[in-house]
Fold these 3 entries.
Entry 1:
Amino acid sequence: MTYAFPTPATRPEAEPKTVYTVASGDLRLATNVKTWAMQQQVEAEFAAAVNALGWKVKRAHGVDPVTGHGFIDNQRRGMDVFASIPLDAPLVVVEAVWQYSHHVLSGLRDHTGPILVVANFAGDFPGLVGLLNLTGSMTKAGIKHSSLWSKDFTDEWATEQLKTWLETGQIVHDESHVRDLPALPDSDEKRLGVALAEELQQKKAILAVFDEGCMGMYNAIFDDELINPYGIYKERLSQSALVAEMNKVTDEEADAVRRWLDERGMTFHVDNDGDWKECLTDAQLASQFKMYIAAVRIANDFGADAVGIQYQQGLKDLVPASDLAEGLLNNVDRPPVYARDSHDELYAGKALPHFNEVDEGVAIDALITNRVWTAMGLDPATTLHDVRWGDDWDGQFVWVLEISGSVPASHLGGYANAHSYRQSYYFFPLGGGTLAGVSKPGEIVWSRVFQMDGEVHVDLGRGTCIEMPQEEVRRRLDSTNPEWPIMNAILHGVSRDQLMARHKANHLNVVYAPDAETADKALVAKAAMFEAMGLQVHLCGDVLKGL
């Protein structure tokens, strides 16, 4: 008998002083086509910087004549592209837009040469967000890498960092703002955190996950073996079940949600007669309200403590965006939802934390925050934001934190300050409204739960959401996505480059406190709870300096 033995694959040898580049893109064709011009611009700027240092750039894949763009747009395409790249060559992933990390993770896992992820520091396209997700995913996967960001790769700092990487294969950024949690002195807050961790062990929590994994966010999936010891378990649900439940919600029930929001002064920018690709309609909103009701009812069915809706894959082609429902869920004061066959209000007087894009790191964080803030008599409303962009203002660096959904109205100062605009057709083809507005000034605690070296870690920090002149807020909105909610935040003792170097995710979780003293106390309780659960806890920047 003869066998058809496979022919061993051969790889080309790396060309001298040559950087090989790839571009991971979106899964959505319309998004890739829309953003391709910006990607080409950033690649050209990066190539010019490499050329100026005496090296050349070789792009590892071309433009697809059928789709009209040059992104790696699915996992199989990524595997095929990496098969032609020399294993030991200097490799750069160039990002100007959002990207799906799993498109390239298989090739990055196998690559033995130095790896660099770069992005343009700009707000108009979320390249920074894509970079942070990919580096966070690589950190979880244990893939060695470096990262770099710049407006156009002509500034001295970026040029020197690039030169270092070309010569040594690595960039070491300043992370001096991070320190491990020291021993916490005895206090009421410490005892509260420990007691809440013990309670979680006894009274376990359930995360309702509507289709695990979203938009390539490998870093956002936490294995059961890691989180079950904390007392946290997952209920894996299908988004098809959510749609089925939405179909059971009556028009009258959806109308009641709309009336409740209208009475509290929320503004819906509706145009039922305009172009359906551009305009928000009452029908889109009604569907979103049905999703809100359906999510609460399913959560109640399974006794869930938090809910995550994937949305972007699959659900986007069936119903309008989940964002408005997400923001409502995260607020304590929200439209009442009743059981199917009775007038029993579900989760009455409580926020039902929603972890946007089923980011399970956010789910763990929001769950712990909810329990600590509630126990302290504080507003437990949380949201995750993309670390989208930022700029100097009045002598300080102020971050633009922005997300398409999940922002509670209390973060905006109430429903009277909330607006709903139509989501962009390129990302949300069936539309739907946002829960948008400008975050109120105040003290915040920010955090991120992430995976590194096979363990679960959390970074904790403090910040201030500041009030800015209307024209500056408008400039920042117009530089990003004006239909989305925005937070203009100063992170205490953490510079722009320090956050970019350290942060292991595209998402950052935020919660308000009434004043700085209360914020510090709540942070102690939160740190104590995380530590008692068994996470590796780190403090970032000017926080709890007296310890």
Entry 2:
Amino acid sequence: MGPIQAPSLSLAALAPLLLVFGAAAIGVLVEAFAPRAVRHPVQVALALVGTVGAFLATLLLAVDGTEEVTAAGALAVDGAGLFLQATIAGLGALSVLLFAERGLDPARSSFVAAAAVPAGSPRDRELLTSERVQTEVYPLAVFAVGGMMLFVTANDLLVMFIALEVLSLPLYLISGLARRRRLLSQEAAVKYFLLGAFASAFFLYGLALVYGATGTIRLSGIRESVTTEGTGTLLVLGLGLLVVGLLFKASVAPFHTWTPDVYQGAPTPVTAFMAACTKVAAFGAILRLLYVAFGTADWTWRPIVYGIAIVSMLVGAVLGLTQTDVKRMLAYSSIAHAGFLLTGVIGLGGGTGSGLAATLFYLLAYGLTTLGAFAVVTLVRDGDGEATHLSQWAGLATRSPLTAGIMAFLLLALAGIPLTSGFTGKFAVFRAAIEVGAWPLAVIALVASAVAAFFYLRLIVLMYFSDPAVDGATVGVPGLPTTIVLAVTVAATLVLGVVPGSVLDLADRAATLVG
């Protein structure tokens, strides 16, 4: 037996991951040893150092043109991976700021004071006004960010599965930590966990089938096997199960059933975090799996993705019309946007091209816009906490013209109105689909966009052209963290709609996948 050789590691290429996981690990130690009084500011600072540091590290790697396979071939650091990692880290930093929002009154925090207290008990009601916050949410969120960044660069199905679990388990926990509506929050967490466990099982079973068919779990090895030996029934079944697991995480219909309930029940900052970051991570993994491993056998998955894109767009657009809760409405908006993103997936050829660049841009634009929209939701409140029923938003423009104006602008961006990032992103992915001959899909996407625009405009009309209810919602004064989030997301949504050229060029240069 020969000597065991250590795997080749590029510490520079792994720097973003090391920063995020290092900050999360230190956060766990802070929970164990730091006095309760200092935990909150320390945890916020650690989370921001980890996410912002990872963002800057990815930018440096991108400037250097880093493109390599490292960690014994388990990770592929390439243009698309770095773009997605930077997007996740940036959105993660903004999400941490939303987590940290406590306003002038610490009791306004979205997170429970003590998670172990039974919901509805006298102690639970007493803690509603406590200045304590369950600060474990910060290292959990940073672990999730690390899992997402690992997810989009995984060059190995087993590493991809581990990353899927690392990003999912913290989300299951923090979804159940809402300060108010505890039972609804805990129900959402249980639903998310149970359905997520099934999705993980699908992914793992698909991994086993692919390994049985090809003898490898390395994406490049699978591509070589597909190229030389073709695709058999076992391999196609394995691919189908892998895709099901990833589409669940991306909240694509018909694997979307968890999305409305979890978006509604989770603390709104957590909902914003999931809607923005998890979507980016899931689609990053989908792109890498389909085009690195199965790019030479696209006939096996293109018809399926084509059909699922149509289903997701129609389900999100039509069912979104029936919603009376703002968070559920944005959940169905997320499902519709997942279908629009799949049009970009269809438009990618051979692992490079306009479809990949368009999808990368769309993920960035959608993540920023939806994060800003949920940040506005955290400000609209009544006596029981956040006011999310549509009737409570009636006449909001008379109570707070600025808040209503910001929300209206972000909703118009989600609808794809010109001079917003949403229009640029949709134009890019629709054009990519048309370039490869999928013009019927682009036509259906245009119709779905028009249908979905109705429920965005309905909320705008409600805010501006309805009389405010006597006991309607009020608008809280945002603290510095939420102000920063709103300023960044609104400015980015405007800039990416008016002058998107530089970011589109950046996405085009980043449109490379290696394996």
Entry 3:
Amino acid sequence: MKNTKYLILLVTLFLGLSACNEDKWLEEEAFGFYSADNSYVSEDQFNAAVTKIYQETDQYSTWSNNANFFISLYTSDLAFGANRQNINLNNYGAQLVPGNGHVRINWQRYYSVIANTNTVLGRIDLEGTVFTSEAKRTTLKAEASFFRGYLYKYLATQYGGVPLILEEVTSAKRDFVRATQAEVYAQCILDLEYAAANLPDVTELGDEVRLTKAAANHLLAELYIIVGEYDKAIAKASAVIDNPSYELMKTRFGSRKDEPGDVYWDLFRRGNQNRSSGNTEAIWVAQYEYLTPGGGNGSTITQFLGPGYYNIQGPDGSNLFLGPTTQNGGRGISWLAPSDYILEDVWTDSPGDMRNSEYNIIRDLVADNPNSPYFGQKMVENNLISNDNSLSKLWSAIFVKTTPINNFPEELFVDASTGEVTRNASQTFSDHYHIRLAETYLLRAEAYLLDSKPGLAADDINKLRERANAPLVDGSDIDIDFILDERARELHFEEFRTLTLKRMGKLVERVRASNPWYNGKFSPELSTIDEYHSLWPIPSQEIERNTEAELVQNPGYPN
């Protein structure tokens, strides 16, 4: 109340002093609310703005599910949309068009975050900004630069050349033009080189949530591969790999290390993604805080990839299972399903591979409905699944890295004695890797191969295969397809698979070979994919409202 009285007094005084000067009175000046002029002044305000960029990037890249991350799975060689053929982007030829909602939403979301990075970078050095130290100012600039490089890398890989906006847009603008894809990648490299030079090392970082030099160097390794500068890619990957603070996890660790499992299983248990768990492999992790306001939405890959096993009926027509349970991975609906490539093919030449162990890919379940005559029997081994259950919706396999199996929050239990859980047992309830060291080894292996050093590429791949107890390889085994296979074995349902296939020039070939909507397994009339689908179309809405310049459409698509 006292503050209100003071505010009224100040306003009255101001009115009295300015009444004689009408022009002065009409000038706007913000005092008691945030405006564009006073929202970016203090260190706390800039820190809040950068924190928001973290949150939005996680939201749109990781937690947005079928609007982004899941698209990169079911339109690839790893998985397929299991509902029906002509839905979402199951059929590139029919659905991947300029008016598609996913095409528009991803463009708009990523540009909205880029706009926020430009605001931070454009205002952080203005006169009147106040920081406790220049080092803090520089770190925030480096974080914003990292995100701009990361976001433009996505856009360039997905859409090709895109408008390159590097300054804050403060008024309506309808004359955007496309930079070339090469120009966009060059800008990404500039932003990420600045980030790598000015972000802290992990040893200097008190907050494990924030970005480090390693994250920037990892992305630079990928970008230098894209632009064909393999020596630089090797150097950037080596800067991460040779940092003694990072190491592949080779022994059991974390919250459930005393339970049956293996170290690959440990990497994906709730609470094990950050360095505080003992994990030296994590480089950049999307943060999720259960039951915390603003703590993220969590990944629903548990639901969307998990099979609907709880609806499986035995030969007598009765349910084999009580319902969704914690021991069977929660409540899956199999909106997308794994391909035969990741279920079987990729493991053929990798016998004994830990990443394919019974702890990491569950291929059979024990009937747990005590009212079923098949109670206690394995359903696959005993051929209990009827033919009606065979189209992946009810059963394929459970990829344990995508579910907190036997570790759902206690609030979700219907009956703790049987393990039954509610329909809300549909998230990972855990943090999610953006980058971990295993991928850095794979990037360096790729750079070595392209630099005509297959022996060194094999050495890096063997680091992962040693950890996985898989047979070792030599340089004569390594080609781009082998590296893609190794990425599938190590990074399945983690990486943006279609982006990897696109930048390696393998999208169309791999989708035609392994996605069952395209190779004839499920559809006598194949879905179609052509070379021009390696880039998404420019959204029609963006073209239509860009009235003062031509935003050229990608070849193969109608305007």
